[in-house]
Structures are given as structure tokens and as C-alpha cells.
Amino acid sequence: MSIEEGVRLARFTTLGTGGPARAFARPESEAEVEELLRWARQRSLGVAVVGLGSNLLAADVGVHALVLKLGGELTSVEVDGDVLHVGGGAANAVALHRARAAGLGAFEFACAIPGTVGGGVWMNAGAYGGDFAGVLERALVATADGSGWLTPAELGLSYRHSELRHGQVVLRAELRLRHRPSEEIKAEVRELNTRRKEAQPTNRRTFGSVFKNPEHELSAGRMLEACGLKGHRIGGAQISPKHANFIENAAGALTADAIALMAEARRRAHEQYGVRLEHEVEFLGELELPAL
Ligand SMILES: Cc1cc2nc3c(=O)[nH]c(=O)nc-3n(C[C@H](O)[C@H](O)[C@H](O)COP(=O)(O)OP(=O)(O)OC[C@H]3O[C@@H](n4cnc5c(N)ncnc54)[C@H](O)[C@@H]3O)c2cc1C
Questions:
Q1: Which helix (H) or strand (E) holds 115?
Q2: What is the model's pLDDT at position 86?
Q3: Disulfide engineering: 240 pairs with which of 105, 117, 201, 284, CB 3.0-4.6 Å?
Q4: Distance CA 166, CA 230 (A)
């Protein structure tokens, strides 16, 4: 397994932005991940994983860490009774396909979440009333000191949040699903995808919801729309004209453009509604939003 230098993270994020990783590797087994975690520790280097990069903003100047992209057996999906055994690097779409073929439901919510199972556990990703916390039995998490299984409570899963930190790698997960006819699963997925396409810019380069929904009668999207931000552009990034809680790469965007748009959106939401919007997208590298 080789460790590369200078790999640009823009290749691995759905927004298509991000500079080079200090080191980059594609482990294909638990043993390889553990070896890489030890390699990084010997060099006092942080470790981060990229899934499908669908919830990720990586710094334009690059990321001073060992960045891992899981492959090989860490993307496997197997069915055992009503439990789906999935690698942390498996795409949700593949896991859902296997579950449907086996007549296992309760993972339909993930049809519109273009990420991996590891990224889903990290964020407790969810949609349409379902989330990972609702199906996750346990996850195998590796650190430089070894690997162990953690339950949702031990992972601290709550709304779009877990207690996982960089340096912890989700190697595998076990999802407990429910028997359901494949045709019903197919019909629900079709309906959810139609609803999604109507409401969100699914055919643009984005990273999903920019901000978490605040405790307010308005969702983050409605609030930013009311602030007049739909279509607002900075550099190559623009707030989606279709849904104001999405940022699109309109043309040659940089992460800095997206950050500037986020700062402006937070400022306006605070000014108009007194609300401090909290970002849902994960930051990789030296990135932060200016204080309000
Ligand atoms: C069009 C669109 C629609 C979306 N809709 C939704 C939605 O409805 N609901 C929702 O919740 N999200 C949504 N998202 C956001 C995103 O798809 C999810 O958050 C997804 O779970 C991210 O998974 P990923 O594998 O791409 O993670 P990445 O974006 O690659 O990474 C996200 C975080 O997880 C960490 N991570 C990833 N894999 C691992 C691993 N194996 N071990 C440890 N850490 C890991 C990364 O280091 C990073 O901190 C959407 C995104 C897009 C582009």
C-alpha cells in the first residue's frame, strides 16, 4: 500500500474544491488502516477519512494530515438475517441496493444521501424521518491504539452529530433492518427521489445542507431565502437559486468562496432573525467562519 503526497482533495469532494493532503493512502483492510494510524502517530500527523466527500469542505491551501480513502474489503456489503454488515467505505446506494434485494427495509431514507456508511455514522446522516441512529446496531472504530465496537449511545449520535473525532476511523457497521417486500422499498425510494429532485439542486455540485436547521419556526433554507440570498454569488460559488441552504460550484469555485458565502449567510440570518446558524458541512484543514 503506497502513501502518496500532493493528492488534491478537490478530486474527492462533491463540491470539487480543496488543496493537497500532506499524505494520502487507500487502505483496503482493517490491518492496513491500523498500520497507517500507527505510521501517522509516529510522525505526529493527524488522520482524517474522506468518504464520498459529500459533506466536506477542504481548505484550498491543503490539509496537514494523512487522509484515507477506504477501499477493498472496507467497502463490502453482506446480509445476515435482518442485519446488514457494511464496510465504512461502502456507498449508501450500494448498501441500499443490497438491502432491497434481500427484502430488508428501514434504510430507504439513505437513498438521497450521496455518501458512505462511515460518513453517515460520523454525521448521523438522515432524511425523511430516518437516520443512522435509528438503524445502527454498532460500529467498529479504529484508532492508533486498536479497534473496538461502539454502540450508537457510545458514539453519541444526535441530530447530524456524533462524538467521533479525526483519528477515529469507522471500519465497519452493522445495520439492523426490517423485513419488507422489495417492491415496497422500490416504490418508496422512487417517491423520495422524486420529492428530493423537486426541492433540491440534485444535478449541481454541492455538499448538501450548509447549515443545520435552527430551533426556529423557519428552516435554515427558508430563513436564508427570506434574507434574499437565493442566487447570491461570491467568486465561483453561489447560493442555490432552487434551495437557499445549498451552495453550488457555479464555475471554478474555491473553498474560500463557499466559506465567504457561509459567513455572509450567517451574518444576515443573525441580523434579521437573531439566530446563530451552525454549519452542518464538515471542515477539513484550517477553516473557520468569522465570529458573529
Ligand atoms: C445533493 C446532496 C444531498 C444531501 N442530502 C443529505 C441528507 O438528506 N441528509 C444528510 O444527513 N446529509 C445529506 N447530504 C450530506 C452528505 O451526503 C452526508 O452527510 C453523508 O453522510 C456524508 O458522507 P460521506 O461519506 O460523503 O462523508 P464525507 O463528506 O466524505 O465526510 C464527512 C465527515 O465524515 C468523516 N468520515 C467519512 N467517512 C469516515 C469513516 N469511514 N470513518 C471516520 N470518519 C469518516 C469525514 O472525515 C468528515 O468529517 C447531502 C449531500 C449532497 C451533495
A1: none
A2: 98
A3: 201
A4: 33
Nearest CA to ligand 1 atom 51: 208
pLDDT digits over 29-78, tens only? 999 999 999 999 999 999 999 999 999 999 999 999 999 999 999 999 99
Strand pairing category for 56-58 and 282-284: parallel
Rounded CA separation 152/124 (Å): 9
DSSP 8-class letter at 279: B
Q: Which cell numbers in the block locate residue 113?
A: 444521501
Find the angle CA(61)-CA(281)-CA(174) to the nearest 5 degrees. Answer: 115
Q: Which of 8, 41, 160, 233 is catalytic?
A: 160
Catalytic site residue 280?
yes
Q: For the CA atoms of the chain, what is the radius of gyration?
A: 19
- Work out the mean pLDDT of the chain and round it to a whole number: 97
pLDDT in tens, 11-33: 999 999 999 999 999 999 999 99
Kindly tell me the burial class for residue 125, based on how many C-beta atoms sit within 10 Å of its own C-beta (0-12, 13-18, 19 or more).
buried
